[in-house]
Amino acid sequence: MSKYSQNWDLESVYPGGSSSEELLEQVRKVKVGIETLHAYIKALSPDLKAEQLITLVNKIQAVMANLGQPSAFVGCLTAQDVQDQQARLLEGNLSQIKARLSVVLTEVDQLLVAVSPERWVRLLEDPHLRDLSFPLREWRLTAQTKMPAPKEALAADLAVDGYHAWSRLYNTVVGRMKVKIERRGKIRELSVGQAANLLSEPDRNLRRLAFHKLEQAWAQEGELCASALNHIAGFRLNLYRNRGWDDVLSEPLRLNRMQRETLDAMWSAVEGSLDHLKKYLKRKAQLLGLEKLSWYDLEAPLGEAAKGISYDQAADFILEQLGRFSPEIANFTKNALEKNWIEAEDRAGKRPGAFCTSFPLSKESRVFMTYAGTIQSLGTLAHELGHAYHGYVLKDAPFLLRRYAMNVAETASTFSELLVVDGALQEASPQEKVGILEDKIQRDVAFFMNIKARFLFETRFYRARREGLIGVEQLNDLMLRAQEDAYGRALAEYHPHFWASKLHFYLSSVPFYNFPYTFGYLFSSGVYARAKAEGPGFASSYRRLLADTAKMNVEDLARKHLGADLTQPEFWEAAVQLSRDDVDQFLAIT
After folding, report:
1. pLDDT category, 387, cuts 50, 70, 90?
2. What are phi and psi of 478, to 5 degrees?
3. Alpha-carbon gap, residue 129 to 131, rounded angstroms
4. 375: closest CA among 330, 295, 317, 322?
5. Which of 49, 216, 508, 521 is 20 to 30 A from 500, alpha carbon to alpha carbon?
6. Using 50, 70 and 90 to split pLDDT, how confident is the model at 431?
7. What element of type H or E holds 356?
8. 508 with 232: CB under 8 angstroms?
């Protein structure tokens, strides 16, 4: 009998799943709350008093939290069962409610912009607003760069059945896709998530078969995916043009609270690691008896780390490793496991990928993944539980101070993953060490090469999209060229339909959701290096850093907690050096 369940408990949030009466009541409550907020905004003038702004902010935070709870729940429903049509309808309904809230908040934009600079400074000096001064200043500055409120409201309305509808189409496509794989004389019909898990199987013939079946499946959906991607990008570019935003990276940089100089310094350091990672890829090819690796060989296991790791073993190992650094983190994680916050079962009908989502009202999280019994799955489980701990640290903060940026969102997750994988490395036999170290370097390949390929593809795609629609063949070519550049032409075969398969390209709410991963990985590596140097005593400093992630931009966060300047190459090069050290060790022991 298993010690830990691999199925999450959603009933404690809203009983009844997509037919939950409590869920529907919450949705109705949100609608009323938005209209109540709207009526209050209408009564305000730019001559705001502190008490009025406090009331306004409290109402906004309440509405956002009340909307966040059902949104997280429905996201879990659509992930656990892509055929749940009722959940799909709820998702569409919530999208319309979010659009309505966006329209209402455009009037807040207009109000904040109209407040005189002198009055604004005085308002933020009020003791009840001082702690929220960073997100409020940020809100006002962003509002000053947007279109007039009526145009922003119209754009938000049109986005429901345009921008966001094309984004939701991805889940519809994934939900109907099936991949048939013959294994041991039996044909299994798999979801794309299950088929993707086969890319880490020891059997190369099985990996190659799964890869080509996935390529064929995405090729069959290519026209539809291309339409969705083109229209998402077209809407976004038109919106940017009307706002006067010339640079397609201006919004993602603002959302990540970082400067362009920081992004450039990070990518410069990553490029410096390319030759080192190419040495690793060449050695791995030799160990697998190949002249060159192909895309479907990148996650191929090496050494004894390929042996099966049960879910219970993975959970207990994670608890042990986290406990060595921080008993608080270990206790939190044990609670998450015992209260069934995790959906990890390997079954058909689930969405591919992994995520952690927070429930702002119940102050809990839920983790979604498909556990495959590999060292990669062990790392993924630790990664997503790290996200959950980050949410736990911020659970009692005002809602606006729980909204950390995408790039620092990867700090706690990657930190936990590094703790666990390095723990596995320390306890490994010489034979196991090869596999575990190799798996760790796979993460370097993912963040320095795969993510870089996504960034290059999107940058070039948006440049081309300004001139008109982009067809499937051109999208394949853009993806292929980006992968060749990012991997230094080190592979024999690439994944041209990767643009179709990756959810992140279709997110209408989050543009360029690629570089935040690399940022988070390297930033977390820098934090991890500090933790290794200071030992368990760093745990309290680490908690304070996480608590500040929604209170300042990333440059100030690093300066305050690490004494580092992210706009300069030194911090990034030191973080990348950890990767080079791992590659050197791998080359030495193989």
Report:
1. very high
2. -60, -40
3. 6
4. 317
5. 521
6. confident
7. strand 355-359
8. yes
Could you tell me where the beta strands, DSSP code E, fall in 240-328?
A: none
**Alpha-carbon span 364 to 357, nearest angstrom:** 9
Query: Which single residue is written with the structure tokens 């760790």?
Result: 440
What does the pLDDT look like over 127-146, one tens digit per residue?
A: 999 999 999 999 999 999 99
Q: 293 pairs with which residues across the strands?
A: 491
- CA end-to-end distance (rounded Å), the chain: 39
Count the residues in the chain. Answer: 590
Q: Please state, in angstroms and rounded to a whole number, the distance separating the CA atoms of residues 392 and 418.
A: 19
Answer yes or no: is 235 within a domain: yes
Same domain, 407 and 540: yes
Location of structure tokens 């026209």: 223
Within 13 A of 278's CA, how many CA atoms are on the CB side? 15
Same domain, 47 and 88: yes
Residue 306 pLDDT level (bands cut at 50, 70, 90): very low
Tokens at 575, concatenated: 């973080």
Range of the domain at 240: 176-302+443-506
Residues 430 and 467 in one domain: no
- In three-state form (DSSP H/G/I as H, E/B as E, the rest C), the secondary structure along 32-75 is HHHHHHHHHHHCCCCCCCHHHHHHHHHHHHHHHHHHHHHHHHHH
Q: For the chain, how many structural domains are there in total?
A: 3
pLDDT at position 304, please? 62
Residue 578 falls inside a structural domain: no
294 and 312 housed in the same domain:
no
Cα dist. 157→11, 75, 96, 229, 489 in Å? 33, 22, 8, 20, 44
Q: List pLDDT tens digits, range 267-295.
A: 999 999 999 999 999 999 999 999 999 99
CA-CA distance, 20 to 457, in Å (whole number)?
41
Does 515 reside within a domain? no
Indicate the range of 193-202, 216-225, 442-451, 577-586 predicted with least confidence.
Answer: 193-202
CATH, residue 426: 1.10.1370.40
3-state secondary structure of 285: helix
Kindly report the CA angle at 509 between 506 and 513, in degrees rounded to 5? 60
| Surface-to-core class of residue 571, CB atoms within 10 Å of its CB (0-12 exposed, 13-18 middle, 19+ buried) | buried
Q: Is the pLDDT of residue 305 over 70?
A: no
Of 455, 474, 506, which closes a domain?
Answer: 506
Looking at the fold, whether 397 and 531 belong to one and the same domain comes out as yes
Statement to judge: residues 57 and 140 lie in one domain? yes
Task: Flag whether 279 is in a domain.
Answer: yes
Please give the torsion angle defined by the CA atoms of residues 466, 468, 470 and 471, in that order, rounded to the nearest 10 degrees: 180
- The verdict on 337 and 194 lying in the same domain is no
Element (H, E) at 294: none
Pick the range with the lowest mean pLDDT from 30-39, 297-306, 329-338, 465-474: 297-306
Kindly report the CATH number assigned to the domain that includes residue 108: 1.20.140.70
Q: Tell me, yes or no, if the pTM score tops 0.85.
A: yes
| Interacting residues of 86 by C-beta distance below 8 A, sequence separation 6+ | 18, 19
Q: Please indicate, yes or no, whether residues 40 and 81 belong to a single structural domain of this protein.
A: yes
